[in-house]
Specification:
It is a single chain. The protein is mainly α. 75% of the residues lie in helices and 0% in strands. It is built from 11 helices and no strands. Helix 2 runs antiparallel to helix 3, helix 9 runs antiparallel to helix 10 and helix 10 crosses helix 11. The protein is elongated, with a radius of gyration of 20 Å.
């Protein structure tokens, strides 16, 4: 109906404007119109907000109510990345890794994010031969560079490559600060 579509637009605007009660608005719409054709998207949007707020378990619940594959490419990739990070934060690294692999393969916008998180998982599991090449591609990245260099330096130390570890630490003194 026209009323439903108008309300749908209003809750989507609330989401994009980051209104304080956007989750409540989205959930209220979903309760009022449980059979809406927009349910997949709205559940994903709720998940995105909960992810951003650090409520990873609740975000996973919301993502679980959405068929992310039915979303547009950008929204699908964004929600899949955030779902993967939620899985990582809640200890489900295997499923997170699988989703990150998918995002890395299909998304130009979120490929770097997925590569970083996969490298982080590889690093934490001691899969240094997989982690190091990815971390080295991120060494000057504005968001991930410091952490990537810290992990790369640690890998070099673990492998007894002291010269390489020293070069990284020399180029990025903040890496040494992060390890303290």
């Amino acid at each position: 109906t026209r009323a439903e579509e108008a309300e749908y637009l209003i809750v989507c605007i609330a989401y994009h404007l980051k209104e304080a009660d956007r989750v409540e608005q989205l959930q209220r719409f979903l309760s009022k119109y449980p059979d809406t054709p927009h349910a997949n998207r709205l559940h994903a949007l709720v998940g995105n907000v909960l992810y951003a707020d650090g409520m990873y378990d609740r975000a996973l619940e919301s993502y679980g109510k959405s068929d992310l594959e039915q979303l547009g490419d950008n929204e699908r990739d964004e929600a899949t990345l955030y779902k993967a990070i939620c899985l990582l934060k809640t200890g489900n690294t295997d499923e997170a890794y699988t989703l990150l692999t998918v995002v890395q393969a299909v998304s130009t916008q979120y490929e770097t994010d997925a590569r970083y998180y996969k490298a982080y998982i590889d690093y934490t599991y001691g899969r240094y031969d997989e982690a190091l090449p990815a971390l080295e591609t991120l060494k000057i990245h504005p968001l991930y560079g410091k952490e990537a260099n810290m992990y790369a330096a640690d890998i070099h130390l673990q492998q007894g490559h002291y010269k390489e570890a020293g070069e990284i630490a020399g180029d990025y003194p903040e890496v040494l600060e992060m390890k303290r």
